[in-house]
């Protein structure tokens, strides 16, 4: 039998994983076991607000480690595993895809195998769920109109999205073939506190505050659908509680913005919160485009809204202001997570 009070979160020291863990510890009575390799993107500082909780158990380790994952499952008997461990940065996948294959594909395969074995050992308890957190990037790039739905064709373009697409297929197959109760979620671009400062939004905030150029790839007219990270977390919990095993759910922000509009908005908000004599917008610099850059993503998340009653609480304008306020107040976190890991060089230039 599962322990109804225990969940495992892989990648729980990363951006979205740590938001989920903080939410579970602060707002529920669940015991949360975090499995995280602490790569450059994983930081215990992101769990600082909850690290002292007796309900948080942190295990450093790799999702591809069969012995370790099996032992965690046997020891804690979770009612669910949220898989957020991944290599997540498209630019890094362009420079060096091998870690993406290893963690996103082989790691997910290992988790599925371990979960299947565990699930069989507890009499196929029907309350168990394996929830795999994926991206809208598996669907490829959109033209000027339309949005991805759960039925969109998989057409991944980058090494990152191809590795995530592969993991999605494995998850689906383990449900179809072995009946493992899985849930699959495909989400658009997240933003918010604790976002590693080499991704667009935190990078722009950081560079702006340092008076450095704000790099915009190509013409900056690429479109992303931005979702505030805590809204994503609420969607993940709702899907875990009420989603139909074997189903897939799209999660989006209904907040399409061009990259240049995002950067300009950050400049405007910063100008208001931390005024600068020479406007921040003067730092905007167009740089060579990312190879194979997807032009537009947009998510239709009406299935999640109508069937499970979820909706976003933040607009881009409210969410970006909160995010910038958080970064202004948490420069120590930025310094701590960057230490010796990322020196601000351009990533994703191609090979
Ligand atoms: P992140 O890079 O901030 O965090 C990933 C975490 O996984 C880190 O803590 C890292 O240490 C850990 N990790 C990496 N390899 C591991 C391994 N082999 N074993 C154990 N832990 C490992 O990523 P994120 O932005 O929080 O994304 C989390 C998940 O959500 C990913 O699967 C990503 O594909 C997906 N996603 C992200 C976004 C987004 O906008 N950030 C959007 C949609 C989906
Ligand atoms: P990113 O945060 O890397 O997410 P993703 O590539 O997964 O969508 O980038 C968001 C968008 O911002 C993407 O279109 C690439 C662009 N971008 C820039 O224009 N400049 C930058 O310095 C970075 C990191 C990204």
3D structure, described in words:
The chain is globular. The protein has eleven helices and 13 strands. 40% of the residues lie in helices and 17% in strands. The protein folds into two domains: 3-191 and 227-251, 3-Layer(aba) Sandwich (Rossmann fold); 200-224 and 256-299 and 316-340, UDP-galactose 4-epimerase, domain 1. A seven-stranded parallel β-sheet has the order 3-2-1-4-5-6-11, with helices on both faces. With 351 residues, the chain is of the alpha/beta class. Thymidine-5'-diphosphate is lined by residues 89-91, 189, 199-200, 203, 215-217, 222, 224, 259, 290.
What are the key terms here?
two-stranded parallel sheet, 13 strands, binds nicotinamide-adenine-dinucleotide, binds thymidine-5'-diphosphate, Rossmann fold, UDP-galactose 4-epimerase, domain 1, seven-stranded parallel beta sheet, alpha/beta, 2 domains
What strand line-up does the widest sheet have?
Answer: 3-2-1-4-5-6-11
User: Can you list the ligands bound to this structure?
Assistant: nicotinamide-adenine-dinucleotide, thymidine-5'-diphosphate
Distance between the termini: 50 Å
Q: Could you tell me the number of beta strands?
A: 13
Which regions contain 5 or more consecutive residues with pLDDT less than 50? none
* CATH topology assignment of the largest domain: Rossmann fold
């Amino acid at each position: 039998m599962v322990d109804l009070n225990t969940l495992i979160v892989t990648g729980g020291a990363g951006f979205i994983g740590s938001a989920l863990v903080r939410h579970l510890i602060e707002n529920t009575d669940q015991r949360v076991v975090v499995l995280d390799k602490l790569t450059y993107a994983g930081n215990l500082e992101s769990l600082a607000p909850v690290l002292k909780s007796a309900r948080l158990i942190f295990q450093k380790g790799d999702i591809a480690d069969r012995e370790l994952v099996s032992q965690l499952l046997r020891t804690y008997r979770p009612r669910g595993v949220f898989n957020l461990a991944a290599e997540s940065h498209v630019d890094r996948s362009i420079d060096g895809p091998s870690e993406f294959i290893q963690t996103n594909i082989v790691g997910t395969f290992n988790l599925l195998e371990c979960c299947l074995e565990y699930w069989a050992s507890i009499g196929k308890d029907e309350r168990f769920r394996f929830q795999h957190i994926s991206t809208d990037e598996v669907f490829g790039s959109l033209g000027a109109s339309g949005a991805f739905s759960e039925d969109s064709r998989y057409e991944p373009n980058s090494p990152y999205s191809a590795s995530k697409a592969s993991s999605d297929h494995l998850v689906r197959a383990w449900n179809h073939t072995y009946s493992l109760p899985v849930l699959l979620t495909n989400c658009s671009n997240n933003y918010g506190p604790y976002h590693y400062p080499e991704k667009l939004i935190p990078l722009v905030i950081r560079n702006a505050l340092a008076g450095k150029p704000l790099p915009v790839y190509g013409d900056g007219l690429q479109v992303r659908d931005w979702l505030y990270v805590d809204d994503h977390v609420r969607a993940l919990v709702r899907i875990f509680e009420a989603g139909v095993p074997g189903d897939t759910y799209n999660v989006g922000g209904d907040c399409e913005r061009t990259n240049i509009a995002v950067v300009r908005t950050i400049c405007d908000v910063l100008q208001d919160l931390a005024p600068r004599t020479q406007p921040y917008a003067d730092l905007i610099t167009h740089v060579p485009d990312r190879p194979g850059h997807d032009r537009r993503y947009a998510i239709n998340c009406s299935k999640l809204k109508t069937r499970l009653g979820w909706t976003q609480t933040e607009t881009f304008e409210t969410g970006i202001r909160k995010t910038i306020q958080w970064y202004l107040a948490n420069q120590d976190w930025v310094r701590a997570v960057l230490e010796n890991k990322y020196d601000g060089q351009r990533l994703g230039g191609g090979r």
